[in-house]
Amino acid sequence: MAERLRLRRVPFRLGTARRRNCGVSRRATSADFSRPEMKTMRHLFITLFCWLSFSAHAAVDPALLAQLAAEESDDKIAAIQAIAASADPAALQILQSLSAGTLTAPDGGEIMLNNRIRAELANALAGLRLVDADPAVRRAAAQELQSNVGLEMAPLLARALEKESDAEIHALLTAAYAQASLTSPDPAVRLAAVTALGASPSRSARNLLLPLTTASGEPDKGVRSAASQSLKAVEAKLAIGETLGRIFTGLSLGSILLLAALGLAITYGVMGVINMAHGELLMVGAYATYAVQGLFRTYLPGWVDAYVIAAIPVAFFAAAAVGILLERTVIRHLYGRPLETLLATWGLSLILIQAARVIFGAQNVELANPSWMSGGVTLMAGLVLPWNRIAIIGFSLFVLALVWLLMNRTRLGMFVRAVTQNRPMAGCVGVPTARIDTLAFGLGAGIAGLGGVALSQIANVGPDMGQGYIVDSFMVVVLGGVGQLAGAVWAALGLGVVTKFLEGWSGAVIAKIAVLVFIIVFIQKRPQGLFALKGRFVES
Amino acid sequence: MNAVTENRHDQEWLGGTSIGHLKRHGEVDLSHRVILYLEDISVSFDGFKALNNLHLTIDAGELRCIIGPNGAGKTTMMDVITGKTRSDAGRCFFGQTIDLSTLSEAEIAHAGIGRKFQKPTIFENLSVFENLELALKTDKRARVSLFAWLGDDQRDKITDTLKQIRLDKGVGGADRPAGLLSHGQKQWLEIGMLLMQDPKLLLLDEPVAGMTDDETERTAELFKSLAGKHSLVVVEHDMAFIEQLGGKVTVLHEGAVLAEGDLATVQNDERVIEVYLGR
Amino acid sequence: MTRTPFVIRFCNATPKSGWIALGIFAAIAMLLLPALHLVLPPEHPLHVSAYVITLGGKIMCYAIVAVAMDLIWGHAGILSLGHGLFFALGGYVFGMYLMRQIGRDGSYQSDLPDFMVFLDWKELPWYWAGSDSFLWSLALVLIVPALIAYVFGYFAFRSRIKGVYFSIITQALTFAAMLLFFRNETGFGGNNGFTDFKRILGYGVTTPEMRVTLFALTALVLMATLLLGRYLVTAKFGRVLAAIRDSESRVMFLGYNPLHYKLAIWTLSAMLCAVAGALYVPQVGIINPGEMSPANSIEIAIWVAVGGRGTLIGPVIGAAIVNLSKSYFTMAFPEYWLFFLGALFVGVTLWLPDGVVGLWKRIQARRVA
User: Terminus of chain B with fewer CB atoms < 10 Å: N or C?
Assistant: First the structure.
């Protein structure tokens, strides 16, 4: 039988892969492909059918197969729908080869497909893939059916629904099924569909329900009222999803701010200076990540996904080295002159930016998320949490924990806290304040470098990427109170969430201004920040 | 300012209680011969009670010394009186009518309370003369300062004070930058600034720290001469100096008054000895 | 007690040598250069080109800003990183007048400015009302920045925000304003700003006569600013400011309210910046939100630092030095300008804390010794 099988261009997939019960050896088939005499064989279609009926457990009506080669598009579509409705594996194989163009008509000619048929075919295929053994395939198919599904798919969907055990796919299927049933002439079926849509909130469900609330969209009154009820339910749930989504993006913004602000808080606390080049240390970290990515692409292409991990120490030490250099050469000599330090560090930031332009070019460089960071988790309708943002939140928590341990459980941390609170006294009891300054500055810079790694995964990496962050991270320090780790955390996350909410509400610019006004008002009330140290020593 | 109105007010104070002209210049109601009332004042910093139901009254013209171990709340008390720190509870009145808790630092200074800090705070980049000029009792609004010009009598007053605090001579005299003065001279300059302010009540936080014995003695003389016309509250650790001053002594401990009386009584008080020397 | 008349006190605030220098400057800027530009033919070796006049006018505008900055930073110890905002606001307000003066000569031949036609707006927004009046625009040049500075300063100084806190918040302020002006909906031409000016009071903006008039006017304002600054810092007002810089709490316990002093000098400084901005726009021919960028504002501080803080004349010198080198560098080696500027920031703060004027004084002191 297999000798009669004629395949053009590529063998259709089952030819090589799914031949378990077929009795014909794989070797024979593959050898047959190139035989010239095969091309002369007729009656292919019938034999194909025979073979299929052997290989598959259920049968596909041969008449239907013949109909696929019919002249009229409508006939072809009818055949496709009928085959699809049978919902058995053989049907899938046939339709797939039809779609791939590897199936020929009984007379050996090509089966012509126009766009209408193709669309129908794609739909039918999706329907068939709904019963695939692999959940990933089923999920993809169900998602495909979300946008465009007709009444003819309803029985198939119903069957798939019965079998489906995965909750997420079940929800998708319910939505598709409801959508398919909405086109039914029977008001009872539509009513059931509308009710079902109410229970599966998604944007498409809202779009489906919206026209049904008007008399022109839905003639039946009962269905109409059910639709508006469902619509309300869907919109409420979508709003929750949207809110949660905003909180989440706010948190991820907040954790970037936290990484930027942690370093600033340390240097500001210890030395009382604002390092205006702090944003550029983020940039150094991001470019270090870029350099590591380049090295991995060249020398370890197989491990390219791990470049982010490798970049973490590299970015930390690169930024720390730059920070220590700045402290040793410039900032140290400006001790006790905070306003001049502001200017000098601004000058340093200009030099760093221009250096980045000279070394890496003025354009943004391209950084790819490693594959394990792409995609996201769908928690509910309208709420997808991208992996890269989840990773950033986790990463900043990790850094935060490290910093906390360092500050509270090590000798260096104790020295840093001592210098923060009372520099002359710390010096008197033998804390090497100059070295602590350098180390603390290096640490702060290193943390900024880590922030750069995180930032490189969600934002553009370019020479002036750090410029916008100095004000924001300073606001975090102001809000949180100097030298207060807990304050910095609350302030960063709070500022992130509030900013995102305001952005959704009124646009980014107004949000920025509103946050600024809020901070000025806040300082009126609590000049020492959220977590203020109180006492008479504070003001001096 | 206006010398005539001020004199009129001077006579009025002795008259009786009057409410409703709190901010009129130089007007402190001393009808009960008391210039400062602190009642039930409490201040806490993160749970630590710096002042704990403090009661203190200072009579008009009195010279009062306050002693107490470190952390007893002496400086915090001055902060509360001058408006730098707000009390959590209690009432703080200047004379009978002026509620200090409602006024800003500048308003309190204007009402007639002058303060010398523990660490001498003078304007290091201004000359000695300018330091005194700024302290001079006059209209201190920004608008007025744009056109203010020193009159001859004001100049004389500054010159007198310069002599009194002995900063008129030496290299540069009154024109040298105040930042170049020695620690003791800075103390004197700050006292001089207080004198220029001509306050009703002077709060002096460790005024003789860093002074030589000779200077300390002169300070004591000066303070004694001021008492009567002014009221003084002096915080000091130097017992010899307090003995020289000779006024009533109040001992603060843990934010409250522990003992009050003349120096000898206080020094023999069991509880005071315990607090100072430990058990 | 005898009171010296105010005029005499004002004149005494500036020493004789200062008056002579001002006189020479006035003669050069208001007579000599305009004459060389207008009277001499372009091919004459002594002819002063339009480029020089415009550059000179621009630098004098910057010098006014620098003096304003010196009043607030050098004398009151408040470092503003947002003075570019007031400069730009002055420029924008006067720019509105200039836009209205274009009339129907724009590319759309409409009564509305071109960018509004482009946005399909049908009428002027309310805040453009009266912008066709020269006097009202001049008044607004002073009022708008003063009001913003006053309100912002009131809240900031009242809560005793100072030092780096204040600096950063002013930077945030100008940053937020820049974002606001970048939006088309704000009604100030979005990121293109205002340009293509045609007339002031009906006279062409680009004529040589208008050019030298603006130039001389800028010189006049610069001199007036210097005299005013000189008077302020020698008056008691200036001494209180210096005292606030040294020890704000002491000033309070002496009975002064620092809020009013700071607010006065802050608002005045903002108004001076705005005047400079209003003079700048017709000479340069463009104003856009880029003027509000934090980098521009912080550059003002370096002009002051280079010249010497607290000297009034220093900032004028500093503004000239930095901007002349900027013109030179951006033409000769554009990629090194930022390195140079950055090094200037670092070098001046490290080695020249008193700027060029301080250096000059040190050299003189050595010569005497």
Answer: C
CB contact under 8 A, B46 and A536: no
**How many secondary structure helices (H) and strands (E) does chain A include?**
23, 2
Among candidates C45, C267, C302, which has minimal Cα distance to C152?
Answer: C267
Pairing of β C199-200 and β C203-204: antiparallel
Could you report the per-residue pLDDT of C214-271, keeping only the tens digit for each?
A: 999 999 999 999 999 999 988 889 989 999 988 888 888 888 888 999 999 999 999 9
Those residues whose C-beta lies under 8 Å from the C-beta of residue C244, and which sit 6 or more positions away, are C76, C77, C251, C256, C258, C261, C262
Partners of residue A539 in chain B, C-beta under 8 Å: 84
- Assess contact for C83 and C69: CB atoms under 8 A: yes
Query: Looking at the domain assignment, is residue A1 inside a domain?
Result: no
Cα separation, C127 vs B237, whole angstroms: 65
What's the residue count for chain C? 369
Q: For A538, which residue in chain B has the nearest alpha carbon?
A: B45
Q: What is the pLDDT of residue B19?
A: 44
Domain boundaries, chain C: 6-368
Choose, out of A525, A526, A528, A534, the residue to mutate when testing the contact with B (most B CBs < 10 Å).
Answer: A534
Total length of chain B: 279
Q: In chain A, how many domains are there?
A: 1
DSSP readout, C158-203? HTT--HHHHHHHHHHHHHHHHHHHHSGGGSS-GGG-EE---EETTE
Residue B18 · residue B84 · CB < 8 Å: no
Q: Could A274 and C164 be called an inter-chain contact, meaning their C-beta atoms sit closer than 8 Å?
A: yes
* Neighbour tally for A52: CB within 10 Å: 21
Quote the domain boundaries for residue A457.
Answer: 255-469
Give pLDDT, residue B240.
84
Whether A486 is in a domain gets the answer no
Q: A213-240 in b/e burial notation, b at 16+ Cβ within 10 A?
A: beeeebebeebbebbbebbebbeebbee
Chain C contacts in chain A segment 439-468 (CB below 8 A): 467
CA Rg value for chain C: 21
Q: Chain centroid to CA A86: how far?
A: 37
Q: Is the CB of residue B255 less than 8 Å from the CB of residue B230?
A: no
> What is the CA C342 to chain-centroid distance, rounded?
22
Pick from A363-367, A509-513, C57-61, C260-264: least confident? A509-513
CA–CA separation, B45 and B49 (whole Å):
6
Write the pLDDT tens digit of every residue in A103-158.
766 666 667 777 778 777 777 777 777 777 777 777 777 777 776 667 777 777 77
